[in-house]
Q: What sequence folds into this?
């Protein structure tokens, strides 16, 4: 039987020294000048370069599928190259795809993006409820993969829906949290954490406490740290008392931490990844 | 300036005789025996075959991206072949991708899937609120494209979130409808309809009236007709009094309407598409 995702994740985080993740969001206009060729080729080379810079520093990377899909079939192959490179370097790959559909279609997404040789974990959208998530959970259970369901997103506009108050007193985001917590009970590993985790933005620290209480067994994938404004203090509430339970992800503040014309762009990315790791290790040691 | 999506859509629906759409959800196990080759090749051949069978009968097709993405880069090329074939045959293409992310990532999805040579319209997810939708709307305005934001989905589990009651009396799905209606005001065409439409499942007829009232300018994309259980009577509430305002989509009941071993599978699909068109034309003539 495949090893449980959360157990694999914590082992990788312990080995690296902190539960952090580098987002791979390649945007053509921001790539190092040294990378040449067709758009998809440059995207692939940049993604593989980020993987090389991050390997041995952080436990996980999170490719943003939108950045690859932008270049169609070629972009998809670029994503596959980055995925393969990350696995070769022993990094856990969280495919940031935010997929979600009715069950039959979710099953196809799970088969394509997550099963077997696919990513180690996938972000998924919760608007369709449990039956839209179940096919993903089935694959996660079978293949030792993980999921992060959107609960509280890091963007300003997320409040318009996620913060609305229900007549029973819960916020919409909390109601989603309850759906995730319940479905997640079906796939808890030896560490006490579920293979079905939750996306909880670092820019919403006031909500993280309440969501942590509702989802004690969920791994929180925490975007919004760095470029989007979330601070090290902001992310503390995402962790449980065991100092587990969250993985903090930063993208632009790490992957674009270079002078575009510098030849040593990977060194700058590696230094930024080290800082990310040490910042979060610092938060957890206090 | 590009012609407005809703104006194009109504002209195509009038020419075809009814506002209907055939979903293209190719599943390997259900393809005609006559189609041979690698999975992605068979998926492409089937999709193109559906396009040929539907052309001249219905105004629009809706490829389900999950079914193509399942086969990675090759699957993506298969989708591109179906897209090209549909455009060559004069069909409006609604890419059923249900994408949605923070603004910067949504902009990449919009650029890859919708802009320029991309699909005519795209389904998008509303959980991240307006700023996750705006980049799609910007492309829709610029290039005469359309969007269908998930409001009320056709799957049984959608109720768990979408039917929850807010303290102000609205349901969650109605709150999403209000976000969509407001943002949609920014892109209304000559027909009075917005380029930002809404997905409203045929399996939720009791909700369609209330959603129609909240979203008078939204084109409703109505899935769930046929295989998922929605009937012709169920979809009536999705239309406005002008008998406009909705496009009814059926997938499995049309595209798999053949004996797998029959050589004339396209004839059977065409007959099922004619029946779909005539059923909906019948509802609108009463």
A:
């Amino acid at each position: 039987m495949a090893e449980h995702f959360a157990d694999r994740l914590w082992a990788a985080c312990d080995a690296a020294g902190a539960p952090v993740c580098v987002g791979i969001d390649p945007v053509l206009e921001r790539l190092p000048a040294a990378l040449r060729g067709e758009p998809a080729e440059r995207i692939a080379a940049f993604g593989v370069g980020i993987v090389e810079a991050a390997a041995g520093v952080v436990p996980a990377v999170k490719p943003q599928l939108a950045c690859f899909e932008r270049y169609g079939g070629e972009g998809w192959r670029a994503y596959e190259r980055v995925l393969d490179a990350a696995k070769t370097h022993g990094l856990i790959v969280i495919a940031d795809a935010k997929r979600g559909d009715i069950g039959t279609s979710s099953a196809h997404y799970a088969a394509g993006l997550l099963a077997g040789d696919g990513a180690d974990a996938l972000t998924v959208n919760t608007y369709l409820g449990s039956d839209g998530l179940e096919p993903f959970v089935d694959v996660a259970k079978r293949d030792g993969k993980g999921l992060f369901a959107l609960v509280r997103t890091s963007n300003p506009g997320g409040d318009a829906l996620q913060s609305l108050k229900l007549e029973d007193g819960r916020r919409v985001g909390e109601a989603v949290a309850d759906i995730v917590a319940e479905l997640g009970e079906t796939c808890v590993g030896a560490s006490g954490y579920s293979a079905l985790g939750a996306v909880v933005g670092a820019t919403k620290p006031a909500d993280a406490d309440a969501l942590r209480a509702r989802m004690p067994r969920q791994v929180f994938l925490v975007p919004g740290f760095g470029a989007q404004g979330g601070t090290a203090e902001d992310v503390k509430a995402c962790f449980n008392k065991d100092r587990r339970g969250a993985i903090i992800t930063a993208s632009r503040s790490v992957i674009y931490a270079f002078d575009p014309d510098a030849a040593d762009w990977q060194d700058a990315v590696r230094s930024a990844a080290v800082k990310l790791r040490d910042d979060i290790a610092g938060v957890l040691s206090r």
